[in-house]
Amino acid sequence: MAGREQKWFKSTHSDADTEHSTCVEVALDTGTTAVRDSKAPAAGQLTVPHPAWNALLGSLRC
7-45 burial by CB neighbour count: b if 16+ within 10 A, else e? Predict the structure, then answer.
């Protein structure tokens, strides 16, 4: 994802109006998903392969 403008988005379930909300933003690229803290985007990001991200989401939905 380096060298390109990333399009970040938040879940529609995010509560942007809450002072203490805990939201992450996600950016998708070919083969990878990047995740960052929406309150501290300059702090860095975690980039994982799509299958790993999908496995995490699947485990949270159970």
Answer: ebeeeeeeeeeeeeeeeebbbeeeeebbebeeeeeeeeb
User: What's the pTM?
Assistant: 0.74
| Rg, the chain, Cα only | 12
Q: Could you read off the pLDDT of 2-46 as tens digits, one per residue?
A: 556 789 998 766 666 656 667 889 999 999 999 999 888 999 999
